[in-house]
Design goal:
By secondary structure, the protein is mainly alpha-helical. The chain has one domain (9-106). 76% of the residues lie in helices and 0% in strands. The chain has five helices and no strands. Helix 1 (9-19) packs across helix 2 (27-52). The protein starts with 8 loop residues before the first helix and ends with a helix. The mean pLDDT is 87.
């Protein structure tokens, strides 16, 4: 099982690719899959941060955006990260859950293949 304690997107992608048994697949296909996994990871992280924000954080976000129009939404969120309660724990849980979601169907397929082999 993947444990997201010290953030490493590469370690996450490598783990998921390995668990999906795609480590030795065609390099072009593997690169596309890795990019999609990384994109999904990024979305999950941003969603985790936004969902963990309190009403007070959202007000501060609006103030930051109003006073610093040069900041992107991401920069404004990252300016508040230290103030978001339990964010570290939420991130660990959500990224670990994502790893399991991404490899779940592959594991189910392996189980089905094993069952079909044992019936022959």
């Amino acid at each position: 099982m993947f444990t997201f304690e010290n953030y490493s997107a590469k370690a996450f992608v490598d783990y998921v690719v390995e668990q999906m048994k795609l480590k030795d697949s065609n390099p072009d296909v593997k690169a596309k899959i890795e990019k999609e996994i990384l994109t999904t990871l990024g979305r999950r992280i941003i969603a985790s941060v936004v969902n963990a924000m309190t009403e007070e954080n959202l007000v501060k976000f609006d103030i930051i955006k109003a006073t610093h129009p040069e900041f992107s939404d991401y920069e404004a969120i990252f300016a508040l990260i230290d103030e978001i309660p339990l964010l570290h724990e939420i991130m660990i849980k959500n990224v670990n859950d994502l790893a399991q979601e991404l490899i779940y169907d592959v594991n189910r397929l392996d189980e089905a293949l094993e069952k079909s082999k044992s019936k022959k």
